[in-house]
Amino acid sequence: MIGKNNANSLFVFAISAFFSSLVVAGEVGDESFSPYVDNKGNISFPQAFRTSMTHLGSWFVPDGGASGFHDVYTEKESVEAFRKTGEFPDGATIIKELRASDKGDYTTGKDVSHSTSGLKQWFVMIKDTKGRFADNALWGDGWGWALFKPDHKERNVAANYKSDCLGCHVPAKQSDWIYIEGYPILAQ
Ligand code: HEC
Q1: How far, in Å, from the CA of 123 to the mean position of ligand 1?
Q2: Atom 24 in ligand 1: which residue has the minimum CA distance?
Q3: Which tens digits make up the pLDDT trace of 91-137?
Q4: Long-range pairs, 134-137, Cβ under 8 A, ≥24
Q5: Residue 15: CA atoms inside 13 Å, Cβ hemisphere, count?
Q6: What is the DSSP letter of 43?
Q7: Burial class of 156 by CB neighbour count within 10 A (0 to 12, 13 to 18, 19+)
Q8: Could you please report the per-residue DSSP string of 78-142?
Q9: How confident is the model at residue 31 (pLDDT cuts 50, 70, 90)?
Q10: Is 186 touching ligand 1 by the criterion CB < 6 Å?
Q11: What does the alpha-carbon distance between residue 38 and residue 29 come to, in Å, rounded to a whole number?
């Protein structure tokens, strides 16, 4: 016969096992890690980033398919953490939006460039200091990597970060794969 205490702890065990199985069965990931990552490491598009995040900085690419403004954002909390530690914290989101540009003569000068409503694509990185998704080809080297296109923002179209992303980020390897020189606000 089981005593009252044993019966109670069995009950607690059964309840917690039930809730853990719900988390495993569901698509919802560990919200405390990132609201944009489910339990398999699938990365979703950070919908409200333009108003909920901080603008880190912008690049201007004059020619080619990636021409226009590359506007980069991260969470306010991630900026604050970076200023303290010099590193992006676990779960930090970095999103780069590619926007078409136009230019014209303004009262500030000739050939002044400005962004337009033409959206091209979005690159997303999520900081992972724990190597959570070792079997997922979109996670590694301390980050989750994703690419979204305007016609289907519900789906990450990158397949493998090593072939789709990493090669181009090698020059920034020493600064955790981030082109940190474009983001002076991380220090000021
Ligand atoms: C053609 C080379 C190239 C490829 C491919 C590429 N990147 Fe980048 N990425 C860059 C460069 C260069 C920058 C900074 C300057 C710029 O945007 O022009 C950058 C910046 C970024 C940024 C802003 C933070 C930073 O590092 O400065 C993110 C986020 C990003 N890339 C994610 C990705 C992801 C995710 C992939 C793969 C799906 C990817 N990139 C593929 C070259 C590339």
Answers
A1: 7
A2: 178
A3: 999 999 999 999 999 999 999 999 999 999 999 999 999 999 999 99
A4: 136/40, 136/41, 137/161, 137/162
A5: 6
A6: B
A7: buried
A8: HHHHHHHHSSPPTT-EEEEEEEEEEEEEETTEEEEEEEEEEEEEEEEEEE-SS-TTTT-TTEETT
A9: confident
A10: no
A11: 4
For residue 30, name the pLDDT band (cuts at 50, 70, 90). confident
Cα–Cα dist 89/112, whole Å: 36
pLDDT value, residue 167: 98
Look up residue 156 and give its amino acid: N
